[in-house]
Amino acid sequence: MHYAGLCITETPPPPVDSGFSQSLFLRGKAYSPVNIFRGITGPLPVTVLNYTSLRTKKELAQLLAKERFDSVQIEGVHLVEYVDVIREVCPHARIVSDWHNIESEIVWRYAETAGDPLRKLMARRTAPMIERAENRLLRSCDAHSVVSAREREKLLLRCPDARIHVVPNGVDVSYYSDNQPVGNPAEILFVGSMDYHANVEAVVWFVASVWPILKAAIPGVVFRIAGRDPSPEVRALAAPDVLVTGTVDDIRPFYARAGATVVPLRVGSGTRLKILESMAAGVPVVSTRLGAEGIELQDKSDIFLAETPAEIAEALQRVLTDKVLADRLRSGGHALVNRLYDWPIVAAQLYSIHTGLRTDRSR
């Protein structure tokens, strides 16, 4: 059966043949003062406004008119304004929305933890607008994919008739496994986009609350923060024992020399690629429960879960000094990603959703 699919994405598509015949990558605009003001006053949140433009709508319409697509996948609520264009120009195509997370959940959680009163107020104003956009997306698309069963249940409470499938995040296991680990027991790694508020909050909190305890327990230990566009708050953390790298061309050497990775997230939604990458690279992971949310993990077997500063410091100390424990976490995590989260496995699940919609239409 010949299948033609288009993926409209806000981030570059994964390096795997997922079956789409074409992809359209939409790069979001900066948080301009105009968009921030429009987002505050509504009805569309700034996160949607940043990815919406008349020029892009025109380019999308031209692409849809040029080739007949069986289905079109859009990557999340940020692209909700393009649904009407797809329906108008390509009415026969089925639309699948791929949810990386529940964006409104992230903003509601941020509103609970934000220390700055103005940011808290803006988050409380923005969250319900994002929720309304998500509900519109739930009603407008033919099918949806989410990364965890927990998120499926939450969205079904909003829209019981929505067709929602669980398709987990994936990782190219062989890409990370080919990198032979060196394993420096005195180095802890955090990986992520360092302009993303959840990551910024995590490392700032970790350095302030966990790092002093761990340094006292393991003299000479180093914390490395690797990721693009570090915010001013992250750059301010730089010290002889806290290394801020900024953008790196290849993250694998950083995984290779890490004794452990830490995921001290207290805000967020979806599932964390940094955990899957670390496991594929054979690096033990210590994480909060929210950080590991949505991934099928066994505590002390695949990952080490901890919450308070004292618990996280103790967990990292144990992983860095107990070779038996570290080897068990490496082995368990690597087996898990091989079994459930390798890209070919995930891509096959997503492809079956699209071809299933085509089969349904032909009946």
Give a written overview of the molecule.
- This protein is α/β, with parallel strands linked by helices.
- It contains 15 helices and twelve strands.
- The strands form two sheets. A six-stranded parallel β-sheet has the order 2-1-3-4-5-6, sandwiched between helices.
- α10 (232-235) links the parallel β8 (222-226) and β9.
- The longest helix has 24 residues, at 117-140.
- It is globular and about 65 Å long.
- The protein starts with a strand and ends with a helix.
Task: Give a brief rundown of this model.
The protein contains 15 helices and twelve strands.
Q: Please state how the strands of the largest beta sheet are arranged side by side.
A: 2-1-3-4-5-6
Class by alpha and beta content: alpha/beta
The outline comes out as globular
What share of residues is helical? 40-55%
Largest sheet: 6 strands, parallel
Mean of pLDDT: 87
Strand share of the residues? 5-15%
Distance between the ends: 15 Å
Determine the oligomeric state from the structure. single chain
Can you count the beta strands?
A: 12
Total helices: the number is 15
Q: List SSEs in N-to-C order.
A: EEHHHEHEHHEHEHEHEHEHEHEEHHH
The residue ranges in which pLDDT falls below 50 over 5 or more consecutive positions are none
Rounded to an integer in angstroms, the radius of gyration calculated over CA atoms is 21 Å
What layout of secondary structure does this protein have?
Layout: E1 5-9, E2 22-25, H1 33-41, H2 46-49, H3 54-66, E3 71-74, H4 83-89, E4 94-98, H5 103-113, H6 117-140, E5 143-146, H7 149-158, E6 164-166, H8 173-177, E7 184-191, H9 197-217, E8 222-226, H10 232-235, E9 242-246, H11 252-256, E10 258-263, H12 273-280, E11 285-287, E12 304-305, H13 309-321, H14 323-341, H15 343-362
Parallel strand pairs: 1-2, 1-3, 3-4, 4-5, 5-6, 7-8, 7-10, 8-9, 10-11, 11-12
Helix pairs in contact: 5-6, 9-13, 12-14
